[in-house]
Design a protein that fits this description.
The protein is mainly α. It has helices at 18-31, 37-40, 46-61, 67-80, 84-97, 100-107, 115-126, 144-164, 178-187, 189-193, 220-232, 240-252, 272-282, 289-295, 302-321.
Length: 331
């Protein structure tokens, strides 16, 4: 069977032990899918795997607000980032919520007929643009930690998936067929519709801080803080000049996708690590075998590649997050 992974071959999840095994056990219980490739691809770096799962769980799955609404926000993010794997996954998960007509309408490229749904989808799409007008929210203010956490989770996951997985959610792109989408959604419907207990993923993390103010007082905050710490540790794989280049590129970024000809990007022969990090941030689907080969040396491992991609992906997340810093509602 063809592997869904690109540029890296993660360890078999069946051999997972310790914290990695605990994460996969919780994913199966609360996400309804055993060993999804979205998380398996991170498993060579357990200190990344745990906070990515924690942030997704505590925002999308256990956070305040309807699952349909948060799936729509995540879908908007995934469409904005041109991540077909994730866009297809959220369409399937809309089936799981029971919103079958909505899922199929969106699968055909339509816009939600329900005005509230349309506003949430559009909001998710606009989060790619640093500084976009994201308020007033299309959801109650008290649900902002869960919705913002969901959006930022998938800005990160989209980039990792686009860089390190193929575009096929199911073998042979079977998710293109309505019956398959519906069946796949129904297979996890019971889990998706069950209310998850907030905070259950936090024991998987290493003493995180409280996180950003917009998530204050919720489990989303520590989960975000833990992911930030783990992802930005990948900066150690770049020299100071490369780190400066990544920062300057992200601060100048307007949310657009790069043109077909990648003018202005770091040269893969001269600055291969910087090129991979910038591509992971702005256009991870443009990472090629040549880019990875130029970076690889005798000491560069698959885990190192995951860390480097995660660093670039979170550099984009952090750039977006700085323009989303609306204080959390007070009780």
């Amino acid at each position: 069977m063809p592997t869904p992974f690109r540029h890296t071959l993660p360890p078999s999840p069946k051999s997972a032990t310790g914290r990695t095994a605990e994460v996969f056990e919780q994913i199966a219980a609360d996400f309804g899918i055993e060993r999804p490739p979205t998380f398996v691809v991170l498993s060579s770096v357990p200190e990344l795997l745990a906070p990515v799962w924690a942030l997704m769980r505590e925002s999308l799955i256990a956070g305040d607000g309807s699952r349909t609404g948060k799936e729509l926000a995540a879908l908007g993010v995934s469409l904005a980032n041109k991540c077909p794997f994730c866009a297809d996954a959220h369409t399937v998960l809309l089936h799981a919520t029971g919103d079958h007509a909505l899922a199929e309408h969106l699968a055909r490229g339509g816009t939600p007929r329900n005005e509230e749904h349309a506003r949430v989808l559009d909001w998710g799409h606009r989060t790619r643009i640093p500084g976009a007008a994201l308020t007033p929210y299309p959801f109650p203010r008290e649900q902002a930690p869960a919705y913002l956490g969901t959006a930022l989770t998938f800005h990160f996951i989209n980039r990792v998936v686009s860089a390190l997985l193929t575009e096929q959610l199911l073998p042979g792109n079977a998710q293109r067929f309505r019956a398959v989408r519906s069946l796949a959604g129904r297979s996890v419907a019971r889990t998706v519709r069950r209310r998850a207990v907030a905070g259950a993923a936090l024991p998987l993390l290493d003493a995180p801080g409280p996180g950003p103010e917009w998530a204050a007082g919720t489990p989303v905050g520590p989960a975000y803080d833990a992911l930030r710490t783990a992802a930005l540790a990948g900066a150690a794989l770049l020299d100071e000049d490369d780190r400066t280049l990544v920062r300057e590129t992200l601060w100048a970024w307007d949310g657009s996708h790069p043109p077909v000809v990648l003018r202005g990007f770091p040269n893969r022969r001269e600055r291969p690590a910087a090129r991979l990090a910038v591509l992971a941030a702005l256009a991870p689907y443009r990472i090629t075998e040549e880019d990875v080969a130029a970076w690889r040396g005798p000491e560069e491992t698959d885990a190192g590649l995951v860390r480097l991609v995660a660093y670039g992906a979170f550099a984009a997340v952090e750039r977006i997050e700085t323009t989303m810093r609306v204080p959390a509602a007070r009780a």
